[in-house]
Amino acid sequence: MDCLFCKIIAGEIPSTKIYEDDKILAFRDINPQAPAHILVIPKEHIGGVDELNSENVAIVSHIFAKIAEIAKNEGLEKGYRVVSNVGEHGCQSVRHLHFHILGGSQLNGSMV
Ligand code: 5GP
Ligand code: ZN
Questions:
Q1: Residue ranges with strand state E in 3-56
Q2: CA-33 nearest atom, ligand 1
């Protein structure tokens, strides 16, 4: 499958890894939108939030537990934002489920 994030998981494309286990990978976004900008992805290829279902959704719970740990380790005690863009209207550019962790400075109050 021609998926950028599957290639990052496979090590075919280098990334700055923050956390990895058998199910998920967290790495720094190549084009950071905030002082801390980390992507957290499942190793299983899921296209996006719109492909979640009762069979595969458990990974999201694991991802969010690790997001809390990663944010603490990154020193984001003043807060951060977790974002998942979905599809065309959501401006999703990589069709592999990912959660952005954005923080390290005061974020814009507008969500869009
Ligand atoms: P999306 O727009 O799909 O919500 O987010 C995709 C993110 O992946 C973007 O923030 C983009 O900067 C990041 N990205 C795209 N290609 C690469 C890459 O090769 N390496 C890393 N680390 N991030 C990437
Ligand atoms: Zn993929």
A1: 17-20, 24-28, 36-42
A2: 10
